[in-house]
Design a protein that fits this description.
The protein has a single domain (3-121), classed as L-arginine/glycine Amidinotransferase, Chain A (5-stranded Propeller), CATH 3.75.10.10. The protein has helices spanning 12-15, 18-27, 64-73, 108-121, and strands spanning 3-6, 31-34, 47-49, 53-58, 78-83, 94-98, 101-104. The strands form three sheets. A three-stranded mixed sheet has the order 3-4-5, with helices on both faces. A two-stranded parallel sheet has the order 1-2. It contains four helices and seven strands, in the order βααβββαβββα. By secondary structure, it is an alpha/beta fold.
Length: 122
Amino acid sequence: MHCDIIVNTEQEHLNVNVDMMKEALEKLQLNIVEMKDENATLDGGDVLFTGREFFVGLSKRTNQRGAEILADTFKDYAVSTVPVADSLHLKSFCSMAGPNLIAIGSSEPAQKALKVNTKLCF
């Protein structure tokens, strides 16, 4: 099942586009899940899908509740949270570089997130 999730963001100017995005996804006949919890925020720049699992950056734009809703929506995939420092997005310092390969930057926030995630995984 292919599914797209329409999210809440703390940036109000982005929430204005929700109706347009929903209309476009409906035209593609995709299954749409709307995140209606007012306490949940989830920004696309904080979500990295590897094909097998999701990494969700907890940042100024994405919170734990948003990550929980993503996990509830995509129950067949593991969802791991990664703390993101400063005003960055998760994808500001990491992205998929190929099958089974995540590229992570050398900046201090990137390395800190890597260390935290490594401790959680091993």
